[in-house]
Fold:
Amino acid sequence: MATKSKTQQASTRPMHRSGPAANRGQNRGPARPPTAPPAANNGRPAPATKTHRPVSEVVVGDFITVRDLAVLMERSPIDLIKVLMQYGIMAPITHNIDHDTAVILGEELGVTVNWPARERTEDELAEQEQEAEAQPKRSLIRQALSAEREGDMVERPPVLAVLGHVDHGKTSLLDRIRNSNVAEGEAGGITQHTGAYQVTVEGKKITVLDTPGHEAFTAMRARGAQATDIVILVVAADDGVMPQTKEAISHARAAGVPIVVALNKIDKANANPERVMEELAKEGLQPEQWGGDTIVIPVSALTGQGINDLLDNVLVVAELENLRANPQGKCVGTVIEAEVDRHRGVTATLLVQNGTLHVGESIVVGNTWGRIKALFDYEGKPIRSAGPSTPVVVLGLQEAPLAGDVFERMSSDREARTVGQERKERAAAQSQMPVRPQMSLEDLFARIEGGGTKVLNLIVRADVQGTLEPVIHSLEEIKNEEVSIKILQSAIGNITESDVMLAEASDAIIIGFSVDVDRTAQVRAEQSGVEVRRYDVIYKMIEDIEDALTGMLEPIYKDVVIGHAQVLQLFKLRRGTIAGCSVTDGVVKRNSTVRVLRRGAEVFSGVRIEALRRFTEDVAEVRTGYECGIKLADRSDELQEGDVLEFLERQRVR
Structure:
């Protein structure tokens, strides 16, 4: 069975560059006029010039978005996305890639990618960090490098995540894997929970992530990390495919990782593996036993039956995936979990994904940083270093990071502190800004025109099965030459937080038909910018999506209160009345509209600000606690001392 799996899966998963150099880019679309020529440094576009020559070299720093790299190379973003897809990477145009990945893209497209010619100053480092997203992304392409880099790369252990329906035996299976494969008496008989551990099978290590369900798995992906190489899907042989099983399948597929099914509880008298395999086939997981390419292994977490067979097949899949890393390369990885210990301070479990992490080195993790004071393996034993695919507990971070944050080794404490502080300040500034949807129907046409969208990912919820089926059928019938519609997940019931996390990680829109949104899901959607659209009539849903595909969908705006100020004193001048005000909360912006309140009642509204000054200078905005002078267009003479000015800003809500 293992040999069959290897043959079948090798035919469906590209692992190396395809075709000789002469054929590279053969699917490339027509070159688009550049919006900027190659940058001078840091991968940032420079002002456009009048002359146009084919680009043969570009300069890129540590990180750059797919969109910006396309601009530098004078290619359509679709060209770059096609290359990424050849390596199994689904990345939007806003995704950050590192320098090594940019080099590979350049080689495929006939463009040389160089480092900046001189060392970067601290100001340049800070500026480049502002170009990156809140978290740096791990190298997505490193494990698929071609033979030219073979000398630098070594095989690394696979990283597993165990997902499945509640009560189907995920925890029992994890315990059985751990207890069957680790040495007895570890750490004085005390097992320390680190969120990850390693087992050894036939002399090869396997790293197992002990994360609580597919929600945590996808939450990490949503933060830019993809720590998992293979998903073990646990399905009870006596219960079959359940709603959370379907969700777990959707989340694993969205992550683009292979699935190995553990058919658990095979020892029970009422186990029915044939029925379960039939249900798996309906979900698109055709078992090998039925001529498909999904490995399904009968196991019993209770007795240990089939556990070694399961792990053997995991190693087969890992071999097909060609999992490799460079122990001497740039050290990056992912946070598995973190906490603040009363005695040891901040502790974080990190998964090293490339390079080697050493005691005494400085790292940036999400929006925090630190110098590593100590490293411990999953057994709690102190170690001096940790290589690729190794889970390790670190001490020395300034603050507890979030699961899914990406860490990166820095050259010094000073650089780590600077980068970490910049990220924290940027995150604080972003938290004050209105959240724009990461994908919305109104933006869809613009993304199509810009070459950044080829697939519209949807998550669909309906009140009953009889409604869900015609909704899905109607969506699948929508035709468009530029964009295909992909339904990542469909289910019955209210929209849940799990739906929002999947949408956040997959750049998807949630469609709800005659259902409500759970409160926690609503809050997370607002925080993350996931668009949730609810309908009661099918034709209206279809009409909206068709209009979006052709650029005809009109956005909806509303006026949002952004601040208040109290009139302290009025100054009668020849050019009109100026109100001396103190901003009591929020912010006043020069482009705000104003509602005037007197003793709690509205006096007038809809008036624009003609002038906004601090002392003698015109300013764009004034924040809480500061005083300013405000002149309203036409109606300043109607103001009285003590009036409250309420400032409104028109914001797009859909």
Remarks:
- The domain at 155-325 is CATH 3.40.50.300 (Rossmann fold).
- The two ends are 51 Å apart (CA to CA).
